[in-house]
Design brief:
Helix content is 67%, strand content 9%. It has nine helices and two strands, in the order H-H-H-H-E-E-H-H-H-H-H. Strands 1-2 form a two-stranded antiparallel ribbon. Strand 1 and strand 2 form a beta hairpin. The longest helix has 20 residues. It starts with a helix and ends with a helix.
Length: 156
């Protein structure tokens, strides 16, 4: 029978490449087993993006790293920014340990690259900045019906 991608003639690689960073992030959000874990991950992502905006830094420290036949500086992040990025990367690594569908596996494999993950997280958070509470509730409803009903219960 094959996967839906094989039936449509589209490979997993083609499907994954066609996804926006925001869509890839949504795939990751759907992998969480609990709402508390998902909320903690979202908070780390939002704080990372805030740190990225407020402390962009030079992007490199002043130490030179030896690489055969060239000399270049190591990338640098502020300690707080690095802390949040490390939390995000650790969470992604833990998510990758569960049984995954092929597309989710491909997305997490791509997100093993810290730079790619930083861009995807930034794209998703910035796309949702400035939302009022109703918009956040509707977005949550689309990604997680359980959280949506939990949030709606708090409003009553």
């Amino acid at each position: 029978m094959g996967s839906p991608f094989e039936q449509s003639g589209e490979t997993i690689e083609q499907k994954e490449k066609a996804l926006s960073g925001k869509e890839k992030f949504e795939i990751v959000l759907n992998l969480f087993g609990s709402e508390a874990a998902k909320e903690a991950f979202l908070e780390a992502c939002e704080r990372y993006t805030e740190e990225r905006k407020t402390s962009p830094g030079s992007g490199h420290n002043n130490e030179e790293e030896y690489i055969p036949n060239e000399r270049r500086r190591r990338p640098y992040s502020s300690p707080q920014r690095a802390k949040f990025h490390n939390q995000i990367m650790d969470t992604l690594k833990r998510l990758s340990l569960q049984k995954l569908d092929a597309l989710s596996e491909k997305v997490l494999f791509e997100m093993a690259d810290r730079e790619i993950t930083g861009g995807i997280v930034n794209e998703w958070v910035l796309a949702h900045e400035g939302e009022d509470d109703d918009e956040k509730i509707e977005r949550t409803r689309a990604t997680s019906p359980a959280t949506y009903f939990h949030m709606k219960g708090k409003e009553s």
